[in-house]
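Researcher: Let's do a round of design. I'm pasting the structure tokens now; please hold your answer until I've finished.
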């Protein structure tokens, strides 16, 4: 009987069922002893069951602790508790945002947590002049993403106007090359007017050299007393000198070194001594030459200066080659004493042709000669034809001169009409370089003539 049932059995006893007191005492005692015996038995059974259940629980915990990698020294409760304390529990400080979604993890606050970090993969972005920055999104990146730019180089030429050198759309300038401008220097000199010094087209000035203002002879002794000479650059005075020179009295000239011979002196301007500086030149004779000769200025000619005369003997046209002009005098034609153009031909060439026939020889005779003019010139020529006792119709004599194949002059006899024809004497004609001069003579006495002849001669002068 179970303990609860025994309790209920005792509690269900009613007063009416009780026996008399004495009997009751005996019966109660017996019942009490039975009750106690039953209760004791029930408790022992419960304790034994509890012990068995406890041992089974400890064994189960022991096995679980071993499964976690911690083996207790024994299965006693204290050793099992020590084994539990040796089990490694979850550690770490990672949070959900630190772990890639949907991966799970554990940390010191718990196990089997799920990450929330987004997986961005490969994120790329191109920057340029408009998009100058890029905000990298939160999350995991696989390392293949990149931020890039497209580069570009440009050149520019300097000018007088402002230039904006910008990249093309979607690009970034990495270099701008500005072409050099040629430099130049210029010189300027002070004048009485303002000057603008500007560079030539396409150049810029690297230097402007302004010539200094000279103060040569700008001294008080050279400036009239009471007069102040001022040289200004427009902003300030460069030189300012008050004169101390006293003007000579009317009709007088100031004494200066260049107005007196050496060895002489004078006084001027309040007693200042001035020594003469003019040198003396004694008499001298100069022979003419083909070079200019000068007598230096600033000298006193104390002696006669004689310049020898130029002679012009044999300077005549006939002694000078034709076409050549001979001048005697200075190079500027001033005081020229001779100006002659030559008429003489320096070279001569004589050519001649002669033909003749005597009795007993009935064959015709002929001759010719020629010359090519190397230069232009003149040709002197002459010729004659004649015979003795001739009269055949086939008799003749001729002499002629040709220029470049063209007949220029001739003297001919034929058919016994004349015995002599010789009027071609002291004849001339002008010729040019390259002209061919030819003289020709020919004759035939026929059957009845005794003698016939012709001659032609020319002298080519060039």
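Researcher: That's everything. Go ahead.
Model: Designed sequence:
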């Amino acid at each position: 009987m179970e303990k609860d049932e025994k309790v209920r059995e005792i509690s269900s006893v009613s007063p009416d069922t009780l026996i008399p007191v004495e009997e009751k005492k005996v019966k109660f005692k017996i019942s009490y002893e039975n009750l106690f015996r039953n209760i004791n038995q029930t408790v022992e059974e419960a304790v034994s069951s509890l012990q068995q259940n406890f041992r089974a629980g400890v064994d189960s915990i022991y096995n679980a602790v071993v499964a976690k990698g911690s083996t207790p020294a024994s299965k006693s409760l204290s050793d099992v508790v020590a084994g539990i304390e040796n089990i490694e529990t979850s550690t770490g400080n990672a949070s959900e945002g630190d772990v890639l979604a949907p991966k799970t993890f554990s940390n010191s606050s718990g196990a089997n947590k799920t990450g929330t970090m987004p997986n961005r993969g490969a994120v790329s972005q191109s920057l340029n002049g408009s998009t100058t920055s890029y905000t990298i999104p939160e999350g995991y990146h696989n390392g293949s993403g990149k931020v890039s730019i497209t580069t570009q180089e440009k050149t520019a030429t300097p000018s007088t106007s402002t230039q904006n050198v910008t990249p093309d759309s979607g690009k970034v300038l990495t270099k701008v090359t500005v072409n050099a401008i040629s430099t130049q220097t210029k010189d300027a000199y002070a004048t009485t007017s303002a000057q603008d010094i500007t560079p030539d087209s396409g150049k810029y000035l690297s230097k402007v050299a302004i010539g200094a203002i000279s103060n040569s002879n700008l001294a008080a002794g050279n400036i009239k007393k009471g007069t102040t000479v001022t040289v200004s650059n427009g902003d300030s005075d460069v030189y300012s000198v008050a004169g101390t020179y006293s003007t000579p009295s009317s009709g007088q000239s100031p004494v200066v070194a260049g107005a007196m011979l050496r060895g002489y002196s004078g006084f001027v301007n309040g007693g200042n001594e001035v020594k003469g500086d003019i040198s003396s030149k004694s008499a001298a004779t100069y022979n003419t030459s083909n070079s200019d000769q000068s007598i230096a200025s600033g000298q006193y000619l104390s002696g006669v200066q004689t310049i020898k005369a130029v002679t012009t003997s044999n300077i005549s046209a006939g002694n000078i080659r034709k076409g050549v002009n001979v001048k005697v005098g200075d190079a500027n034609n001033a005081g020229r004493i001779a100006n002659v153009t030559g008429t003489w031909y320096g070279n001569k060439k004589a050519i001649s042709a002669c033909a003749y026939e005597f009795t007993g020889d009935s064959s015709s005779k002929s001759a010719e000669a020629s010359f090519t003019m190397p230069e232009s010139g003149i040709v002197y020529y002459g010729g004659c034809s004649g015979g003795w006792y001739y009269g055949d119709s086939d008799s003749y004599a001729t002499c002629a001169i040709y220029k470049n194949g063209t007949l220029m002059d001739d003297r001919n006899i034929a058919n016994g009409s004349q015995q002599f024809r010789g009027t071609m004497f002291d004849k001339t004609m002008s010729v040019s370089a390259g002209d061919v001069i030819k003289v020709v003579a020919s004759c035939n006495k026929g059957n009845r003539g005794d003698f016939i002849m012709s001659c032609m001669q020319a002298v080519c002068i060039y």
